[in-house]
Amino acid sequence: MNTYHIDDNGYYGIYGGAYVPEALHRCVEELKNNYRQVLDSEDFKAEFELLLRDYVGRPSPLYLARRLSEHYGCKIYLKREDLNHTGAHKINNAIGQALLARRMGKRRIIAETGAGQHGVATATVCALMGMECVIYMGQTDVERQHVNVERMKMLGATVRPVTSGNMTLKDAVNEAINDWCAHLEDTFYLLGSAVGPHPYPDMVARLQSVISREIKQQITEHEGRDYPDYLVACVGGGSNAAGTIYHYLDDERVHIVLAEPGGKGLDSGQSAATLHLGKPGIIHGFKTLVMQDEKGEIAEPYSIAAGLDYPGVGPMHANLIARHRASIVAVNDDEAIRAAYRLTRLEGIIPALESSHALGALDKMKLRPEDVVVLTVSGRGDKDIETYLANPPQ
Ligand SMILES: *Cc1c(COP(=O)(O)O)cnc(C)c1O
């Protein structure tokens, strides 16, 4: 069948797969052999659903933003992942993977984090479940994201600063992978986005797919049909977008719009717009579009939103673009800031800087009065207030 979902070999078209060193092969295989069976089991589903409801606060509302709709001349609904416990969508995935880890007999959780959001979500879930937690974070990020480091520590996690390479996310991932290799028996690597070697992209997409499952039901209540005309989400690695579109991937009545970080502009040399600028390559154990310099080395990405500056992108998304199933919009720093202030002043909702990129995409879409748009607000902006105030809209 012609589908945009993953195939039996762990690929989305030519993207995906598992390109890992021999030493890691065993861990990835163990995960691959277990994840579907566990995620599909009644016992897992019951525990996951209960925590999503009572701990995360799901379902997250689907909110008809009337003043924003009026501004754009169409109907815009916001999927409010910003209202989740810990303030973003990442908790959905963290809970799911921790439940899987426990069922696989692993007691120790490791994770990487850039901005610190995934580290906080992971540390939160480890506190909840009484598991040991080690978070790898580039030294540069440790300094930049001081408050999140303190949160992780308060939650009982050990934060290990990484001083190799540029001392950012990419280096933290490498250290986490080394740790995983060395402690295979008792350790589970809890990955934060829809990236990494198969089965991670598919597993994370499934755990986040609760977002589109809820949208289906909620949009039916509002509109009397179970699909919108447009789905809009921002893309860093691609997990909130994957969750938003999961149950609509093969429903071509729905236009998918992915907003990626243009940074200071596509031609500026300071961007993280991987879907625009990347070339096929391998990063962190999977094949995807990768931002590269002239020598083919992985380029250092830039975005004002720390959660979006990843030099790769999920394989599902790379394939959606290759097959023209989704359109891609690059939203620059200043455009995202403008969109954030607009939402704040029209609706009283301060979005995360990452989510502001999805909002900025609205300015670049040709919307008609009869269009129904669902846009995912992936997180709340409390963490970004200093950046917003330092960068007033131009
Ligand atoms: C981490 C993060 C993102 C980007 O990650 P995806 O995997 O692309 O969803 C987006 N929004 C918020 C609020 C985040 O914390």
Strand order of the largest sheet: 3-4-14-9-10-13
Helix content: 40-55%
Strand content: 15-25%
In the CATH hierarchy, the third-tier topology of the largest domain is known as: Rossmann fold
Terminal residue distance: 48 Å
Low-confidence stretches: none
Rg is 19 Å
The CATH architecture of the largest domain can be named as 3-Layer(aba) Sandwich
What class, by secondary structure content? alpha/beta
Describe the structure.
The chain is an alpha/beta fold and 394 residues long. It has helices spanning 22-40, 42-56, 66-72, 90-103, 117-129, 139-144, 146-154, 169-182, 200-208, 210-223, 239-245, 274-277, 315-322, 333-347, 353-361, 385-390; strands at residues 11-12, 15-16, 62-64, 75-80, 108-113, 132-138, 158-162, 187-189, 230-234, 255-263, 279-283, 286-290, 326-332, 372-377. It has 2 domains: 11-51 and 90-203, Rossmann fold (3-Layer(aba) Sandwich), CATH 3.40.50; 59-87 and 209-390, Rossmann fold, CATH 3.40.50. Helix content is 43%, strand content 18%. The strands form 4 sheets. Strands 3-4-14-9-10-13 form a 6-stranded mixed beta sheet, sandwiched between helices. Strand 9 (230-234), helix 11 and strand 10 form a beta-alpha-beta unit. Helix 4 crosses helix 5 (117-129). The longest helix has 19 residues, at 22-40. The termini are far apart. Bound molecules: pyridoxal-5'-phosphate (PLP). Pyridoxal-5'-phosphate (PLP) is lined by residues 88, 90, 117, 193, 234-241, 307-308, 352, 354-355, 378-379.
